[in-house]
Design a protein that fits this description.
mainly beta, seven-stranded antiparallel sheet, NADH-dep_flavin_reductase, globular, 3 helices
């Protein structure tokens, strides 16, 4: 196994190290049709169960960031292994931006205007509770307004710069 150790202070050090942390893939949706945007992210996690809160991390230069600040609402769509094409669209592969990222998949729009992906492992609609800006990114704390988790498909994860599927066929390290 090759060991990469970039120069101290190099941005590549953290990037290289974080490639070894597998993360679930989610699409964060923002805005209302026909002026929606969104992005693919792995920096999504539960902050608190009581009260229920999550955290998302977003680049402050991202077009989605200004929309989150403006609307105060966002959707989280946890992708199944069969939804890699959606992850690619929202990651901007092929130069796809804004409303065009919603093409090729089925979406519902909640009464509050949040877009949720049909067939995702789980979807949730959030109200922004707080935004904390630090360095190049912002931490957004969200309060759930609606949550649905109905699918039992395999999950899509991102590990070592590639998408992978993980599901019931995976043997746990503790076994």
């Amino acid at each position: 196994m090759a060991h990469v150790s970039p120069e101290p202070g190099s941005l590549a050090r953290l990037t290289e190290a974080m490639r070894h942390l597998a993360g679930g893939v989610a699409v964060i949706t923002v805005g209302k049709p026909p002026e929606r945007s969104g992005y693919t992210g792995t920096a999504v996690f539960s902050l608190s169960i009581n009260p229920e809160r999550i955290v998302i991390s977003i680049g402050r230069q991202s077009s989605s960031y200004s929309v989150i600040r403006q609307h105060g609402l966002f959707g989280v769509n946890i992708l199944s292994a069969g939804q890699q094409h959606v992850a690619d669209l929202f990651a901007g592969r092929g130069g796809v931006k804004g409303e065009a990222r919603y093409q090729g998949a089925e979406w519902i729009v909640t009464p509050r205007g949040v877009s949720l992906l049909v067939g995702a492992l789980a979807t949730a609609e959030f109200r922004v509770e707080e935004i904390i800006e630090r360095h190049s990114h912002a931490i957004v704390i969200g309060e759930p307004l609606a949550i649905s988790a109905t699918s039992d498909s395999d999950a899509l994860i991102y590990w070592r710069s590639a998408y992978r599927a993980v599901g019931s066929g995976v043997r746990l390290a503790a076994e």
